[in-house]
Design a protein that fits this description.
The chain is mostly helical. The chain has helices spanning about 10-15, 35-75, 80-95.
Length: about 100
């Protein structure tokens, strides 16, 4: 996971939270930092790309799970040993 509080940790370690307009770091945490807007946008874009790749992986896992569940349900109705063995081999190939 990304360290989302990494920007404020040095402030906390330096003697406490930023309080009021006269604080030493020159800004309000809710207003964001005064510099590095382009860097923030790049970090945000990188984060969203990572989220999209995770969503794609999850979709693939869900599809594989559905296929496996379908194969499992089909084996419940099989009577012949050969059919069951073929179905098991198909499920093992999905690993």
């Amino acid at each position: 996971m990304n360290d989302l509080l990494g920007d404020i940790k040095p402030t906390i370690a330096a003697g406490g939270y930023a309080r009021g307009p006269g604080n030493s770091n020159g800004g309000d945490v809710e207003m964001g930092s005064s510099g590095g807007a382009a860097g923030d946008q790049d970090a945000l874009q990188s984060y969203f790309r990572e989220v999209e790749s995770i969503k794609k992986e999850m979709d693939g896992i869900k599809a594989a799970q559905r296929d496996l569940m379908t194969m499992h349900e089909n084996t419940k109705a099989m009577i012949k040993t050969r059919e069951v063995q073929q179905a098991r081999q198909a499920m093992e190939v999905r690993d």
